[in-house]
Amino acid sequence: MGEVKRHPERGSSQRDVISGILSEGLVAHVGIIDSQGAPVVIPMAYALDGDSILVHGSVASRLMRNQGPICVTVTLLDGLVVARSLFNSSMNYRSVVVTGVPEVLDGEERERALLVLSDFLLPGRVGNAREPSRPEIRQTTVWRLSLENASAKIRTGPPKEDPASDYELPFWGGVVPVRTVFGPAESDGAGANVPIPDHIQRLAEEAGLGVAPEVGG
Questions:
Q1: Are 100 and 148 in contact (CB under 8 A)?
Q2: pLDDT digits (tens, 9 = 90+) for 26-49
Q3: Which residues fall within 8 angstroms of residue 49, CB to CB, at 6 or more apart?
Q4: 91 vs 83: CA distance, rounded Å
């Protein structure tokens, strides 16, 4: 497992903690050292798949042509921590860092992984859209990265004021919660007149939102 060196009290190597954070995220930042020796970090969709994560991209991208170790980071922002001093203001967050050399998937494993990616990002998607064709699959590289070298880091709670005299200052302190929600689905107005499917409609309903007006309505 990875080791959290700064604020180690916030770190965790427990697999259930790591998987719990990854199951809530949607975007990972994937870092490599490219063929020119330059560091590159690219935001990508990912999927949690058992004891590993999956990422995919074009076979032509410089990221997916990388053959060395990578670093994958997923961060969930939970709140802005507002202290009475600028120095002690912070953020509440949950993050996971995974490092290692990814396995390149092929054949049936690659096909399965692409379906897992689709269903992770939008549960219920598989079966409600055309699946990838053979040419599309050949154009896509899929990596599997084990969670063996993964660590989580979490900050929760109110600001930690220092020194104690800051509490006497005439400034407010506390936390401004942050959350990501799905809004009402918006039809593109093209193609057949198909109603919004249940698996998409549920996203807005779970957030307490309704249905967006149809295009042209």
A1: yes
A2: 999 999 998 888 999 999 999 999
A3: 113, 116, 120, 144
A4: 10
Q: 54: which 2 tokens?
A: 């999956």
Q: Mapping DSSP to helix (H, G, I), strand (E, B) and coil, where does residue 119 land?
A: helix
* CATH architecture, domain defined by 8-162: Roll (2.30)
- CATH 2.30.110.10 in the chain, residue ranges: 8-162
- Alpha carbon distance, N-terminus to C-terminus of the chain: 53
Q: Is the dihedral of CA 48, 53, 56, 62 positive or negative?
A: positive
**CA distances in angstroms from 39 to 23, 59, 104, listed in the order given:** 27, 19, 21
Minimal CA–CA distance to 4: which of 110, 94, 122? 94
Give pLDDT tens digits for 157-199.
Answer: 999 998 778 999 999 999 999 999 898 888 888 877 888 899 9
Q: DSSP strand E in 50-178: where?
A: 52-58, 70-82, 90-100, 103-104, 140-146, 150-155, 174-177
Q: What are phi and psi of 200, to 5 degrees?
A: -85, -40
- R_g of the chain computed on alpha carbons: 21
